[in-house]
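Journal club side-thread
Mid-discussion, someone asked how the predicted structure for our own chain would compare to the paper's figures. Pasting it here so we can look after the session.
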Amino acid sequence: MHALVLIIDGLGDLPVTALGKRTPLEAAATPNLDRLANAGSCGLVDPIGGGELPSTNSGAGMLLGLAPEQAGWLQRGPVEAAGLGLPMRDGDMALRANFATLAGGADNCVVLDRRAGRIRQGAAELAAGFADVDLGHGVSAALHPTEQHRAALVLSGPGLDADITDTDPGDVALPVPLLPSRGRHPGAEFTAGRLNAFIRLAHEQLKDHAINRERAVRGLPPANGLITRGAGLVRRFDNHIVRAGLRAAVVTGCNTVRGLGRLFGFATPADPRFTGDIDTDLDAKLRTALDTLPAHDLVFVHIKAPDVCAHDRQPGLKRDFLERLDTALSVVVGRELLLAVAADHTTDSNTGFHTADPVPALICSARATAVADGGGFSERACRNGSMPRQTGAEFIRRVLARMHP
């Protein structure tokens, strides 16, 4: 039986006073999800297990079949670069980068703005001089602008080791010194040194760039440096779905999840109507998933908007979006397929942050009509569901087993 797996990003939540001490999912009218939960089996899922705090990267990775023992290899740099479709080979190292505003010289550089005023124009011109940089010792670097201040950096060459520290100071009070990257063990010092050489070169070339002279005239902060984070090596991952010989696809507007799919060898159909926000075209996503199913054993549909709403601390908007999603699911209910619903993590609408709380999940034949669990679909109802509490990896293995009973 073919399977459609819906990954609702940040679906889990905590009770919100403004919603009558209910979660957005509990407050939402979701007759289709309730019907599926009542006719199938539901329960709670710990996305990565062990009480650890999941991210989209790790939580979605588990649901997409990543072997848990390789979770530590999964870094955002290669995932984001794969999502962009950048050319990479096994052994390359990819990092996330920001154009930033720096002050001072090479020995006393400080970070004034991690995002260079969220630069919206000129990033492509700034990056053009770094498409193929020789860093010596057989190592080269390629910088690829993505959106606003963001970029991806790929280092290629022998002996690279991604166990290095970030140069991005993170969300701290600024200004702070720009610290060089360090190897977390002696074998990684070579890689840190090549990265530091690139960052110094970038600062030297960017500070007098025509784009930055123009920004100075306009009173805008210069994008005169680069800071990096999330280094990881490009490698092949062990994946339960691939190991089972199944064909999979991922329908998403989120670059992170698209990158995960590409790293795992899944098809990733694209459409400009797919976004990672509340303006995404749910009908188009679900139609694409159904059109993709005949040539694949299972198709994942990733929906980012609930997570965005919770991060923005808008529980009412999250509730309303879940109702829109439930209405869109009418096209799926009643078809001859296995339907599963889960989430990559809980996002608390009260605080705007991820938590380690479990997420609600269900598995149902879309044509099932008999009442099984019978309590609807919510965090509270799933506590008493018939599925045992399990990790994300165990949940997707359960889905695979249900596909071929």
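Post-session note: The mean pLDDT is 95.
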